[in-house]
TrEMBL record:
EC numbers, comma separated: 5.2.1.8
Residues in the signal sequence: 1-23
UniProt keyword Signal present: yes
Residue ranges annotated for the PpiC domain, each copy included: 23-112
GO molecular function: peptidyl-prolyl cis-trans isomerase activity
Descriptive protein name: peptidylprolyl isomerase
PROSITE patterns assigned: PPIC_PPIASE_2
Keywords from the UniProt entry: Isomerase, Rotamase, Signal
Catalytic activity from the UniProt record: [protein]-peptidylproline (omega=180) = [protein]-peptidylproline (omega=0)
Keyword Isomerase part of the UniProt annotation: yes
Organism: Candidatus Entotheonella gemina
């Protein structure tokens, strides 16, 4: 295929304005970079089996990177004639040669228009509590695009909600294999392990949750407060180690004071370790932030009364 020169702005505007799918419609995923050599290197990685989703998220400079490169649904008849010639030769799942877009360079992947539709359907089904239909929609999507990282994550959540933890972990690990530096996947894995530990009472899941939260922190500092909360939660409520939980919960409460659970669990941990002055101190601090924990407050009053 030969390079095609169109402006990136025009192409993205066209994709953004595309609406319902017809027989001539296709969904496009794009990776846009500044240098032709970088684009060639990315295409080589794709040929070697790398995930298009992941490379779009981590390498592309286009706004679509926030959607893992998904640029929308486009009708072939509305596309620039030279680009149309390229796209017409491609089947769903195929990606283009390096294509010039003004001063930038792109690799474009053609998808069935069902891909974005199925993802949106699965999200809506999850929001409505329709877990089994959401699982079916996500699996149908993955038959069309096996490296679709968001679909793997959504399917993992749905399977977890159905308490199929073994399959949930398997699916989320597949997402991690496709996107190894995405901390959000490890946070999700830690959350699923935590849920599995509560439901099955298997200590192994708790240990695995700890490992996942720690890995997430190493990959992305933005997840540190949530990971500290997760670690504190596991130590306090699963492993029954309130003393070990306190340092994590203190950090979570300091780093993200808007997290109600961080304050709640920290007060709980202070009570369980019988460090009542600290429990009262943090209770007052949390109240000053607008949080109310009536059960913990009643527990503290009962302890205070019994100590007189």
């Amino acid at each position: 295929m030969y390079p095609v020169v169109v402006t990136l702005l025009c192409l993205l505007t066209l994709l953004a304005s595309a609406t319902s799918a017809t027989a001539k419609d296709m969904a496009l995923r794009m990776i846009v970079v500044r240098q032709v050599d970088e684009a060639k290197a990315i295409r080589k990685q794709l040929r070697q089996g790398a995930s298009f989703c992941y490379l779009a998220k981590t390498k592309s400079i286009a706004p679509s990177r926030k959607q893992w490169g998904l640029s929308g649904v486009v009708n072939l008849n509305d596309v620039h004639s030279e680009l149309q010639a390229i796209l017409r030769k491609m089947k769903p799942g195929q990606f283009s040669d390096v294509t010039a877009l003004g001063r930038h360079y792109a690799v474009i992947k053609v998808l069935s228009p069902k891909v974005p539709d199925l993802l949106e359907t699965a999200k809506q089904q999850m929001n409505q509590g329709q877990i089994k239909p959401a699982i079916q929609s996500a699996r149908q999507l993955l038959k069309l695009e096996k490296d679709n990282v968001p679909a793997h994550m959504l399917l993992g959540v749905a399977l977890s909600e159905s308490k199929d933890f073994k399959e949930s972990v398997k699916v989320i690990k597949q997402a991690r294999d496709y996107a190894p530096t995405e901390a959000q996947i490890l946070m999700l894995l830690g959350t699923v392990y935590t849920k599995a530990a509560f439901e099955t009472e298997k200590r192994t899941y708790s240990k695995q949750a700890i490992g996942a939260f720690r890995q997430a922190m190493k990959l992305n500092k933005g997840f540190v407060p949530a990971a500290h909360l997760g670690l504190g939660h596991v130590h306090l409520n699963l492993l029954k180690q309130p003393k070990k939980a306190i340092p994590y919960l203190k950090k979570a409460a300091d780093q993200a004071p808007q997290l109600a659970r961080a304050h709640q669990y920290l007060i709980q941990a202070y009570i369980e370790t019988k460090t009542y002055p600290e429990a009262w101190k943090h209770m007052r601090y949390a109240q000053g932030k607008g949080f109310k924990f009536p059960k913990l407050l009643a527990q503290l009053h009962k302890i205070k009364k019994s100590s007189k």
